[in-house]
Amino acid sequence: MTLTIENKEQVQVQATNEQSDVLLSVKDLQVWFELKRFGIGHAGYVKAVDGVTFDLHRGEAIAVVGESGCGKSSLMKTILGLYRPTGGQVFFNGQQISTLNPKDLRWYRSQVGYVQQDPYGALPPFMTVERILGEPLRINGITNRFEIRERIYKVLEEVKMFPVDDYLYKYPHMLSGGQQQRVVIARAMILKPKLIVADEPVSMLDASVRVEILRIMRGLQKTHNLAFIYITHDLSTVRYFSERIFVMYAGKLVEKAPVHNLLHNSRHPYTHALLAASSDPDARNAAVYRDVPPGEPPSLVRPPAGCRFHPRCAHFMEGLCNVQDPPDFEVETNHLVSCWLYKPEKPQ
Amino acid sequence: MNTFKRTIQDIFQYPSAVVGASIILVLTILAVVIVIVFPYQKAVDLWRAGEDVWYRSPKNAQPEWVNFFRRQDLPETLFLSTLEGTAAKTIKPVTEDLTQVFISFPIDYNYDFFPQELSIYFKSQFKEKKPLVTLTWVTPNGEFQMANFSIRETGTYRVSQDEKLKRKLSGLPPQQALFVDLKAPVLSPVKGPYELRITGNLFEKDATLDAEMVLYGQVSGWAGTDHLRRDLGIALLWGLPVALSFGLIAALGTSITTMIIAAVGVWFSGWVDELIQRITEVNLVLPFLPILIMVGTFYSRSLWIILGVTIALSIFGAGIKGYRAIFLQIKESPYIEAARAYGAGNWRIIFRYLLPRIIPVLIPGLVTAIPGYVFLEASLAVLGLGDPVLPTWGKIINDASNNGALFQGQYYWILEPSVLLMLTGLAFALVGFALDRVFNPRLRGV
Amino acid sequence: MAEKTLLHLEDLKLHFRTGKGAVRAVDGVTFDLGYQEAVVVLGESGCGKSSLAKAILRLLPRNVDAYSGKVYLEGQDVMPLSDEEFRYQVRWVRMSMVPQAAMNSLNPVLKVGDQVAEPMIVHSRMKKEDALAQAAKMFQNVGVPIDFLGRYAFELSGGMRQRVAIAMALVTLPRLIILDEPTSALDVLTQANIMNVLKRVKKELEISYILITHDIATSSELANRVVVMYAGLIVEDSDAMRFFQKPLHPYSQMLMASVPRLRGDKEPEFITGQPPSLYNLPPGCRFADRCPLRFDACDQDPLLVEIESRRVACWKYV
To answer: What is the pTM of this model?
Structure first.
């Protein structure tokens, strides 16, 4: 059931029998990029996202963890409305995103905020903070000067940039990395979105500043009951930030679990490897070699047959792992693993 | 505003830029003043006017300030007129049918060289009977009768064309011989007071007679004159606003349009970009100057047409390739992606997010391009394809070369416009290079 | 200065001249580095740690305001050497460096094998075949397949490129390698791999490291000793074991507290304020205005005091 725009404010749709507080529903999403030879010929696809399914509830924070090249950026940009899905569906509030016309697409984009990795690059260097924050408002039809000013003040207060007047007329290069990132967060918040997507929001900041920014984002999430998708490759920060963690590898989600379960009871061999490779500061680390799965993440143009991790997996099972892609198996409540090791003995 | 002030401060760190900027300031103020004092129509009229406007100027005279550097002065031009009251006229009625008019033109001749010419312009009013005039020449050594003849309503008497006088003066050119002691061994001008006396006999009661004497020297005006007696100063002055505005409009028009087209191509990519690139490549192959020459020869030489064709041909030029390279980089910036994410439309992104980043490259390029267009206009004029109406620097050079200026030693005719062209070009180039260093800090060490 | 000291820095200073005044990036650094020892230099950005690397290797920019102190390499003071002598005898012969973002600074038009062989050709005047053979050996040491010798930088992944950069620093078999943020742009698994490589190279080739980073967790993978830098000065110098368990300097304590941990329950704390600008440093302890334990004595510059063979620059311990 699709909606007309007139009543988008009162959206309460049951597309299925699921809970009505599902904000974002991704079903079997595929995002493929065509490779062209000499600009014309077809030379295959980069299958950046190749069958991703999950539900995100209102006010829920999830982390998507994976290394570079796993497709998490493409997943995120599709959710932001920047890419069109090649296959599968994305539902926001019950409405399908992939078939929106440009006007509705603009509305959708105002519902999803974007916090980027590079705080300096994310801000136009020739605009003051005030203009940067005013742009999303003006683009989305808010032209009343007082309302714009008021919303800018409010959002800067929320990211704790006091006194606001000191910062309004500064250019990005006059701000520190942490301050720049706070402006980026403020910009993401200013349209009062329901969902924020943050792509490695602190990896380019100093260690001492990271915690502060993460705290601010967590605070905003709780205050406004925002859904959050936090994309990172740094496992050590996710536990302060999210309720569930998804682990992504080569275009697929290989494990989905609540934070505690994932960190203490992970099942997928790749997740094990990630956890084993993340260190806490401990002098004893210097004496041991870390166990790292051999090889590198596969090419997304010609991924391995069957389970994509099988060439590097210590538990590789010939005839199964290299033939068929494993489905999701539920090993505990709400804990799904895509690995043949967890195939139940008896059919369920 | 702050950036602007800071930029100005940065620019003035470079002495070359200060020099260049001052020159440009002076030239601009001058250009504005010129356009006000000599409006377009007046300048054009003056330039196209013939003898009746310029008759008081000598032909191909050098600038007056040349005398400052010479030990022996060249004669200046002197004109005296009864109509303007600079010459004394006495009217003496003799009988009812005869009135005598005495006109005196005193000349204080202290030069070491001969004048070009001595002419007298008569104006007379009568019904039937033509007046008769007698010219007497008074030298420091004596006086003698030069000529006598009758005149019509307007008459011109040129000493150099008076054959009788020439024979009287031993066959020497009269304008020289009048100032010489014929008996002296070396023929150089005798300095001292001279006088040309005119006695006019009017045979009617109400007839009038007026005369103007012009002693054509070898120097005239602050810039000299050309072959049509026109004061070069007018063309030099008027050439300035023409050069500046042509250069500025061409440079601005081209740069801004090129910038926008490059941005549009890069942003929309696909067939739009391909089309623009192909057009550019074809345009780059086309020969620029020959096309302008063809347009000038076969269609119109009007400055505006040439300006328009110049801009049209320059828009899809090498600038597009350069700007495209920069825009391709900027397009990947995270903030552009963020703008798309919060709903910015294509045109907003192009104009408000892409184009501002190119300004630091645009401005130095613009300023450095201005001299190129100034020289282009001058080149076309030199080739004979300049605007036929306007006096411009290129036109002066064109006239000079057509009239063999350098062969005749009239170096000022070529040098004056050339120096002005070079000065303008230099000023903009200096400022442009300084701007380049200000906007692109990586060049600062250079 | 102990006999088993590979590198001894004494009051090393490096100041830069900028439009806004002098930047005292390295303002009197003194420490020792032993053989087969890895020292981690920790600090926030702007504390001078990258400048320290440049000061040790004499990779100076044009706007140097002051460069003084003593640098003893294996007992020999290399500061008096002329620039030519330093280039031929020391840099890349006995000390080398993997600079920041080295994986992005590989020459895109040369094959990686040639780049790694280049220092041998230039310094040791080796023939090209011998240099390439040495490069191949280094590739083995860092775990890059030999047939990558003929590839170009853009054909390699980030992790591989970083290994190539390490091989380049290793090829002349120096005694000491300075690594500036070697893993900051890499993924977790790749980071672990690189750390493994560094550990193995240290053991097999007997090389010492100065590892400059702000990533405390990863630094513990390699550190035998930890030196903390703040605003151009060393504020703590301690062995790794005791540092990670119980740092002494208030700044070190706050740094450790700000690290998010995968295991354990404590939530990280952030450090308020910002490091001082290196232009106009106030007198007294440079950390004073962010320090929760500040008291009167902090108006004076603290000196490094030695406590149980650890050094700390804090009035609290005097």
So the answer is: 0.80
